[in-house]
């Protein structure tokens, strides 16, 4: 349950422009699609995927760090880590289980399968879009457990794109189609309130001191 009094207290600290921007951005946020990256060795690629999620309205990014434990490259993310929720997993199985429990179908992005081209992908189902390592692609475990495969149509000699480029193309295409559709893709009222609270806290310096002072003055 969101503490509405605390939310109002924090938002009173923010400028009217920032509060309006929060509402405008949240109108275009979605959890209908989520993105997952598996053991991406180059840190800047994970950060760039996060930035694409933020720019195109994907609220959650799932990071599997089974082999390579990495921190987010803040210079590449350019603040996106403040606005996108990061779910971290230390195993493929844990990530797959979590996403399935939330109702997502597992979609493996790969240039080597012939299941579905990007423009033909059915956007009606909640989908988790998986992106793999730079050289090896997605693991056999994900490929074996995928409900479908998705690829970008290409007409040149090159068979694959950098993961951050692939993610940007796919996320932009699917979210653009989603916003033009009749699908119920937006965040719920409760989810919007939760993000308003999170984003307000992320926007205020010395939030821990302010939070402690608030609850001292307003004991539950």
TrEMBL record:
Q: Does the keyword S-adenosyl-L-methionine apply?
A: yes
Q: Which InterPro entries match?
A: Alpha/beta_knot_MTases, SpoU_MeTrfase, TrmH, tRNA_m1G_MTases_N
Q: Which reactions appear under catalytic activity for this entry? A: guanosine(18) in tRNA + S-adenosyl-L-methionine = 2'-O-methylguanosine(18) in tRNA + S-adenosyl-L-homocysteine + H(+)
Residues binding S-adenosyl-L-methionine, per UniProt: 109, 152, 161
The top EC class, named as a word, is transferase
Q: Where is the tRNA/rRNA methyltransferase SpoU type domain?
A: 33-171
The EC code for this enzyme is 2.1.1.34
Q: Which key words are in the record?
A: Methyltransferase, RNA-binding, S-adenosyl-L-methionine, Transferase, tRNA processing, tRNA-binding
Going by the entry's taxonomy, the superkingdom of the source organism is recorded as: Bacteria
Family recorded in the similarity comment: Belongs to the class IV-like SAM-binding methyltransferase superfamily. RNA methyltransferase TrmH family.
Functionally, this protein is described as follows: Catalyzes the 2'-O methylation of guanosine at position 18 in tRNA.
Q: What is this protein called?
A: tRNA (guanosine(18)-2'-O)-methyltransferase
Report the source organism: Flavobacterium anhuiense
- The gene behind this protein is trmH
């Amino acid at each position: 349950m969101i503490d509405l009094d605390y939310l109002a207290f924090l938002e009173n600290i923010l400028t009217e422009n920032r509060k309006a921007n929060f509402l405008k951005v949240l109108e275009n946020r979605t959890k209908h699609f989520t993105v997952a990256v598996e053991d991406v060795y180059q840190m800047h690629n994970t950060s760039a995927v996060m930035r694409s999620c933020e720019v195109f309205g994907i609220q959650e990014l799932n990071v599997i760090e089974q082999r390579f434990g990495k921190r987010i490259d803040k210079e590449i993310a350019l603040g996106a880590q403040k606005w996108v929720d990061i779910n971290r997993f230390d195993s493929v199985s844990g990530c797959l289980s979590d996403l399935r429990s939330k109702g997502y179908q597992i979609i493996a992005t790969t240039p080597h399968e012939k299941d579905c081209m990007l423009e033909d992908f059915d956007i009606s189902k909640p989908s988790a879009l998986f992106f793999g390592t730079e050289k090896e692609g997605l693991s056999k475990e994900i490929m074996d457990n995928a409900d479908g495969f998705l690829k970008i149509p290409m007409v040149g000699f090159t068979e694959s794109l950098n993961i951050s480029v692939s993610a940007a193309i796919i996320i932009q295409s699917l979210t653009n189609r989603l916003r033009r559709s009749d699908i119920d893709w937006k965040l719920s009222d409760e989810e919007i309130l939760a993000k308003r609270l999170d984003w307000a806290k992320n926007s205020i310096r010395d939030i821990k001191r302010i939070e402690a002072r608030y609850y001292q003055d307003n004991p539950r």
